[in-house]
Design a protein that fits this description.
The complex is a heterodimer of chains A (385) and B (471). Chain A is α+β, with helices and mostly antiparallel strands and 385 residues long. Chain A folds into 2 domains: 10-49 and 156-225 and 320-374, FAD/NAD(P)-binding domain; 91-149 and 227-317, 2-Layer Sandwich (D-Amino Acid Oxidase, Chain A, domain 2), CATH 3.30.9. Chain A contains 11 helices and 19 strands. In chain A, a hairpin with a 6-residue loop joins strand 18 and strand 19 (334-338). Mean pLDDT of chain A is 93; it is low at 1-8 and 377-385. With 471 residues, chain B is α/β, with parallel strands linked by helices. Helices cover 37% and strands 22% of the residues of chain B. Chain B contains 15 helices and 23 strands. Chain B has helices spanning 14-25, 49-54, 59-74, 133-143, 159-169, 183-193, 197-212, 265-269, 310-327, 333-361, 366-369, 385-393, 399-406, 419-430, 451-455; strands spanning 7-10, 30-33, 77-79, 83-88, 92-97, 100-105, 108-111, 115-117, 130-131, 150-156, 173-179, 217-218, 221-229, 232-239, 247-251, 253-258, 260-262, 274-277, 282-285, 298-300, 376-378, 383-384, 449-450. Chain B has a 5-stranded parallel sheet, with helices on one face. In chain B, strands 9-16-10-11-12 form a 5-stranded parallel sheet, with helices on one face. Chain B has a 3-stranded antiparallel sheet with strand order 4-5-6. In chain B, a hairpin with a 4-residue loop joins strand 18 (274-277) and strand 19 (282-285). The two termini of chain B are 38 Å apart. The chains are: A alpha+beta (385), B alpha/beta (471). Strand 17 of chain A pairs antiparallel with strand 23 (449-450) of chain B. Chain A: Keywords: Oxidoreductase.
């Protein structure tokens, strides 16, 4: 059921936001014996974590996150071991294709940076790329090749988490939009929800609200700018096999994969329109056309398919496009996790990392310290809240 | 935004056609968009030459021809064969025609998209012998084609008797009529029908013919299973009263449908407010009698605002036409009220009959009694009842979460066939109201869209590539 509450409404840890980051943190804390609640305004895994392209790729992710993405990818492939259930993660090689001389340079440049961060990416000829992916356009001039890519049908992952969270004794409080979080004099935080859960108290609080993080951090008076990307996703009807690998192009603005059921998912971060305050997003027809043209150019046999569904997923991004993960300065026992580029790939690893930090282990989160944004910022005034 | 006309009307059935004719009379520039080859919608669908030669003309045929004549002489631009695949605020309508794309914009948009047939699964419902009831009606009336030599006509609502009549008229055999409603419900319906003499007379004529041919009618019953046996199927009929024994009969076709529900694709895509009508068992776009929705400038006319049938759809179309002219400042409030008064009074009278009809069409929680654990509920994705119930037990309590975890509703029909059944399963198992569990979120494209149509002819240089993602 949607609301599993105890009579006390007092928790060792309350995690706000039930995407992959928050849910993994909650799962690991619950398993460590903390009385844990996972709160969401809607149902679990219904925002970015349930609707993203599910690409496990080292080609597109920020170079600085490659070590984390490699570990996250491993976790997805071994989900049965730690999540209790296989989530359909499939390991395939990944190709990033170049169709123009400028793109060849770009492929080379991006591959070099990623190789330095530990990704086993090599640049290969167009002919070699066609051997690996016979479905690719013969016009391909060169490609970056990575043996460690893959994909997940993201929409099923929430069900695996729902089961695991229940087994770990985590209270999942769905349909409970949080409207405020205030520190208590005696320590801990009061969390005001609009759902059946009412007010809950957490000794620790974790903000894991994706694109809503800016608003959440403002509850504690922090002013951190979080940009919202509205990423377009397109899926075709089932079709015979047309491709075997995860495919992207040099500039990173395409992701393509064919799932085991025959549907082809087209992503790449083409933008839609929308506003998280008013809710509701809108596909821009021209961007649909651009995205699909790029996909068809890359895998020409896609011209035989039909598009069944187009939707938009919200991705959060900080000013420097790097994550914020760890303790919130000047507040005891308050934590944040989010704004991880291509965050689904590294999500379970990042969530587990934060859980270990909360449990007192010494983990290195220095690169993700939110202090880099809060040190300079002036607190939000009460009016702005 | 530069507009192409004052008003775009989606759907050239009777509601859309009347809205167009009336709005044009008030001096508005309207464009009608319709995905069929000719105007008329479902009830007034243009018959094929074969059907014209072989199916006796009835009142609906004559009215349909008359409607097409009126549209032709009006000079209204009708884009037939154009499928609407997206609508955005403002309003901009995206069209697909012969694998080519087009778009239209106007400050006023009318959704006159009519009804969708309601299906519920049973064992063997994916056998090719099984068609929809409304689908069979189209086949018979517009095509002059029998669904089979010996057909079981099953489901709910007046369409049962209409389809049985059409089969007989074309020389086919009706093996049985299987109806979820009781004779008592029909008696109540009959008592209301005195308000609509035309429909009453038609219904009585059908019933006389059915009785004369001694066609068995099973009331309070449904098709439990269809099992293929060579070129025929065994159709098992189960009593819903809980006291009858199963009856199995042989047939080569089954026409089964559980009434109609509003087509809400456009209104859902625009996020207009929708209400759940418990008596009817469906979601409908909230609209006033003139078709005004919760979104300024977006009107819903005809069955899209609740199933009421063709006669009411005609009146709703007239009212919407007047209302659009009024709301756009072409007629004053007094003129508007004077024009609408007689229409409203006729509408109220017919509405009583139509509401009763809608209740009769609602088969209630039939999916619960009529499926096994392994019965496919979503036929596109082959999602069984057990898979759906497992997702619910794992914590899915809202219909889109069930869709996400099981893929039900993600196939080419885009959830049109399974939504009603999934809603029933979910509401029952979570002890929530069917209104609480929600409806599928409608996504563009509203119909599967060929990649060739979307992309057109282009070169790599034509693609407006955004700047590269950061390193």
């Amino acid at each position: 059921m949607s609301v599993r509450t105890s009579s006390t409404h007092r928790y060792d840890a309350v995690i706000i936001g039930s995407g992959v980051m928050g849910a993994t943190t909650a799962l690991m804390l619950g398993r460590a014996g903390l009385k844990t609640a996972l709160v969401d305004r809607r149902s679990i895994f219904r925002e970015a974590s349930g609707v993203n392209a599910g690409t496990l790729t080292l080609h597109m992710i920020r170079a600085g996150l490659i070590p984390h993405a490699m570990r996250g990818r491993e976790m997805w492939l071994n989900a049965r071991e730690w999540l209790g259930r296989d989530v359909g993660a499939t390991a395939t090689p990944g190709l990033s294709l170049a169709f123009t001389p400028a793109e060849c340079e770009l492929v080379e440049q991006r591959a070099t940076v990623r190789r330095e961060m530990g990704a086993p990416i090599e640049v290969i000829s167009g002919a070699r790329a066609r051997e690996i992916e016979p479905g690719a356009n013969p016009d391909v001039l060169a490609a970056a090749y990575c043996p460690l890519d893959g994909f997940i049908p993201t929409y099923v992952v929430g069900q695996a988490y729902a089961r695991a969270l229940a087994q770990a004794g985590v209270d999942v409080l769905e349909d409970c939009p949080v409207s405020d979080v205030t520190p208590c004099d005696g320590g801990g935080y009061d969390i005001v929800t609009g759902g059946r859960a009412g007010m809950v108290h957490g000794t620790r609080v974790v903000f894991a609200g994706g694109v809503w993080l800016q608003r959440m951090l403002a509850w504690l008076g922090l002013n951190v700018r979080i940009r919202c990307l509205i990423n377009q996703l397109v899926v075709t009807e089932r079709m015979p096999p047309v491709m075997n690998n995860v495919i992207s192009i040099a500039n990173g603005l395409l992701s393509l994969k064919q799932f085991q059921n025959g549907t082809v998912l087209i992503g790449g971060g083409w933008q839609g329109e929308g506003n998280i305050d008013e809710g509701g997003t809108r596909v821009i027809p021209e961007n649909l056309q651009g995205n699909v043209r790029l996909a068809r150019h890359t895998i020409p046999r896609l011209d035989q398919s039909r598009i069944v569904r187009v939707w938009l997923g919200l991705e959060s991004e900080t000013d420097d496009a790097m994550p914020i993960i760890g303790s919130i300065p000047t507040y005891d026992n308050a934590f944040v996790i989010g704004c991880v580029h291509s965050g689904f790939t590294s999500g379970p690893y990042m969530g587990a990392l934060l859980a270990r930090h909360i449990l007192g282990e010494d983990v290195d989160l220095a690169a993700f310290d939110i202090g880099r944004f809060t040190a300079m910022a002036s607190p939000v005034s009460q009016e702005e809240k | 935004m530069k507009h192409d006309c004052d008003c775009i009307i989606v759907g050239a059935g009777v509601a859309g056609a009347m809205t167009a004719l009336v709005a044009q009379r008030h001096g508005l520039h309207v464009i009608v968009v319709d995905d069929n080859a000719t105007p008329g919608g479902q009830v007034y669908r243009q018959p094929s030459p074969y059907a014209r030669a072989h199916v006796p003309a009835d009142a609906e045929r004559r009215e349909g021809d008359h409607l097409r004549d009126k549209l032709r002489t009006s000079g209204i631009e009708i884009r037939s064969g154009h499928s609407v695949w997206s609508v955005t605020a403002g309003f901009r309508v995206e069209l697909c025609h012969d694998e080519a794309m087009a778009s239209l914009s106007a400050p006023v948009l009318v959704g006159a998209t009519g009804a969708t047939e309601r299906f519920h699964p049973f064992e063997g419902w994916t056998d090719p012998a099984v068609t929809g009831l409304a689908a069979a009606s189209i086949l018979l009336r517009a095509g002059g084609i029998l669904p089979g030599q010996r057909t079981v006509v099953a489901g709910s609502g007046p369409l049962l008797f209409s389809v049985a009549h059409q089969i007989m008229e074309l020389g086919g055999e009706v093996a049985a009529i299987v109806d979820t409603a009781s004779t008592a419900q029909w008696a109540r319906m009959g008592a209301t029908l005195v308000l609509d003499a035309a429909r009453m007379g038609q219904g009585l004529a059908w019933m006389r013919e059915i009785r004369r041919r001694k066609i068995p009618i099973h009331h309070r019953a449904c098709v439990r299973s269809v099992t293929r046996r060579g070129s025929v199927v065994d159709v098992t009929i189960r009593s819903l009263a809980g006291n009858g024994r199963d009856v199995t009969i042989a047939a080569d076709a089954v026409a089964c449908g559980y009434g109609l529900r509003p087509s809400t694709d456009l209104s859902r895509l625009l996020h207009a407010r929708h209400d759940y009508d418990g008596a009817a068992g469906y979601w409908q776009c909230a609209a006033d009698p003139y078709g005004r929705s919760s979104i300024d400038g977006f009107y819903v006319s005809g069955d899209g605002a609740g199933i009421r049938g063709a006669s009411v759809a005609r009146l709703r179309g007239i009212l919407s036409g007047h209302a659009i002219a009024h709301d756009m400042g072409r007629i004053d409030s007094t003129t508007f009220a004077d024009l609408c008064r007689p229409v409203l009074s006729r509408l109220r009278r017919l509405d009583v009959v139509s509401r009763q009809m809608v209740r009769l069409m609602n088969p209630g929680g039939i999916v619960l009694a009529n499926t096994e654990a392994d019965t496919p509920v979503c036929r596109c994705e082959r999602v069984s009842r057990a898979t759906i119930e497992q997702a619910i037990d794992d914590g899915a309590h809202e219909i889109n979460q069930v869709k996400s975890w099981t893929r039900c509703g993600m196939g080419p029909c885009q959830g049109r066939m399974c939504e009603d059944s999934v809603r029933q399963l979910l509401a029952h198992r979570t002890h929530q109201g069917p209104d609480v569990v929600g409806h599928y979120t409608t996504r563009m494209p509203l119909r599967p869209l060929p990649v060739q149509a979307v992309t057109g002819t282009y070169t790599y240089a034509d693609i407006p590539l955004p700047k590269a993602a950061p390193l």
